[in-house]
Amino acid sequence: SQKIEQNSEALNIQEGKTATLTCNYTNYSPAYLQWYRQDPGRGPVFLLLIRENEKEKRKERLKVTFDTTLKQSLFHITASQPADSATYLCALGDYKLSFGAGTTVTVRA
Amino acid sequence: KAGVTQTPRYLIKTRGQQVTLSCSPISGHRSVSWYQQTPGQGLQFLFEYFSETQRNKGNFPGRFSGRQFSNSRSEMNVSTLELGDSALYLCASSDSTGGGTGELFFGEGSRLTVL
Predict the structure, then answer these.
(1) Which chain A residues are within 8 Å of B92, Cβ to Cβ?
(2) Is there a contact between B113 and B12 (Cβ–Cβ < 8 Å)?
(3) Which chain A residues have a beta carbon less than 8 Å from that of B107?
(4) How many CA within 13 A on the CB side of residue B46?
(5) Residue B73 contacts residue B49 (beta carbons within 8 Å)
(6) Which of A43, A83, B13, B50 has a CA that sits 20 to 30 A from residue A16's CA?
(7) SS3 of chain A: helix, strand, coil, percent, to 5
(8) Do B42 and A43 touch (CB under 8 A)?
(9) Chain A residue whose CA is closest to B108
(10) What H or E segment, with its residue span, contains residue B49?
(11) Distance between CA atoms of A108 and A12, rounded to whole angstroms?
């Protein structure tokens, strides 16, 4: 069956450091992969989409890589700030996006 | 542009009742998806509508149903509520017209509590 796994439920880091989140998937052949941010009690907010023919994509302090051979995406938050504290979700699919369970990032000042 | 609007934001029902949730997508978006989010199961896909047609459906019982109107607004209904239906129900719209490659824009959700 199809499965999306995000590396850990929680990640605590010091302000200014880089947070690295992992998304692994099985039994998918996605044309693209998306990352979302969700704050408590709010709906997810789209951050980045990376296509299968793109190895890396950047947006401000965010960087996403996509390795279709390893079936893995890495999501990096560089120079992290307390405002980056949230749950980050990876998602795959087309008509129906399937989401990972998410990784909750807490950035300590 | 106004975002995705969901109503009501909070509601409390008792077992056996039914509930209808409403979603107004971003203007111009023709695709509307519904998700259920619970602490134990995470975000689970319910169904997706495009131009009033259900294009895809998740693995939920028939008590969960939805529809989309000609103005792209959507409703979902849950009948014969069970305690396990307590969740945050999220609606998302997309401007995808083809294979669903567009990003999803989520509303703030409707928090349903079943007593």
Answers:
(1) 43
(2) yes
(3) 43
(4) 27
(5) no
(6) A43
(7) 5, 55, 40
(8) no
(9) A43
(10) strand B42-50
(11) 7
Our CA dihedral for B44, B32, A76, A6, rounded to 10 degrees, sits at: 10
Q: CB B43 to CB A34 under 8 A? A: no
Model pLDDT, residue B105: 93
State how far residue A18 is from chain B, nearest Cα, in angstroms.
25
Residue type, A7: N
Closest CB to B107: pick one of A43, A96, A98.
Answer: A43
CA torsion, ordered A29, B100, B91, B6, to nearest 10 deg? 160
Largest CA distance in chain A: 41
The pLDDT tens digits of the residues spanning A20-60 come to: 999 999 988 788 899 999 999 899 999 999 988 898 999 99
